[in-house]
Design a protein that fits this description.
single chain, alpha/beta, 5-stranded parallel β-sheet, binds 4'-phosphopantetheine
Length: 158
C-alpha cells in the first residue's frame, strides 16, 4: 500500500490545495490529508472546522482527512506513511519546503515529493484569501463553493 500524506493548515482549503490532493490521489493508493494544529496561531477557522470542510470537498474514495498535532514525522509513522507530498507555487515556497523536507528526512527517513501547483492556482494562498475576504473582495473563484461562503462570513466577523 503506497500511502501519501498531504499536510497543511488549510485555513481555508483552496482550489489549489484540492488540485494537489486530487493529483496525489492519482499517484498513490491512499492519501491522508493532514490538518496541522498550531496552538500558538489562532486561525480564521478552528482545526475541526477545517477538517469538516475538507471532508465535504475531498470526495475521492482513496482520500481521508485527519487532524494532527506535534511533529509531522510522528504523524507519518502513526499512519504508516513514508511519503509527504507538498505543492510548490514559486521559488520562495521551495526555500522553506526544502529545509523542512531535509529535516524530516533526517529525523525519520520520511521522503517529501514536491508537486508543481497548476498554473491557474499558482498565485493563490489561504493568507491572501483571508485578507481579500476580510476586505469584502470576491474570493469565489479560488475556493470550493461552500467554503467560499463560510470564508466570507467568518472573515467579515473578525
Ligand atoms: O499550510 P502550511 O503552513 O504549509 O502547513 C504547515 C504544516 C502544518 C505542514 C507544518 O507547519 C508542519 O509540518 N507542522 C508540524 C510540525 C513539525 O513537524 N515541525 C518540524 C518541521 S521540519
Amino acid at each position: 500500500m503506497r500511502r501519501a500524506i498531504c499536510p497543511g493548515s488549510f485555513d481555508p482549503v483552496t482550489l489549489g490545495h484540492l488540485d494537489i490532493i486530487q493529483r496525489t490521489a492519482q499517484l498513490f493508493d491512499e492519501v491522508v490529508v493532514a490538518v496541522g494544529v498550531n496552538a500558538a496561531k489562532a486561525g480564521l477557522f478552528t482545526p475541526d472546522e477545517r477538517v469538516g470542510m475538507l471532508r465535504e470537498v475531498c470526495r475521492w474514495e482513496n482520500v481521508r482527512v485527519e487532524l494532527f498535532s506535534g511533529l509531522l514525522v510522528d504523524f507519518c509513522r502513526a499512519q504508516q506513511a513514508q511519503t509527504v507530498v507538498k505543492g510548490l507555487r514559486f521559488a520562495s515556497d521551495f526555500d522553506h519546503e526544502l529545509q523542512m523536507a531535509q529535516m524530516n528526512h533526517r529525523l525519520s527517513r520520511v521522503e517529501t515529493v514536491f508537486m508543481p501547483t497548476a498554473v491557474e492556482w499558482s498565485f493563490v494562498s489561504s493568507t491572501l484569501i483571508r485578507e481579500i475576504a476580510a476586505m469584502g473582495g470576491d474570493v469565489g473563484a479560488f475556493l470550493p463553493p461552500g467554503v467560499a461562503e463560510r470564508t466570507v462570513d467568518r472573515a467579515q466577523q473578525h
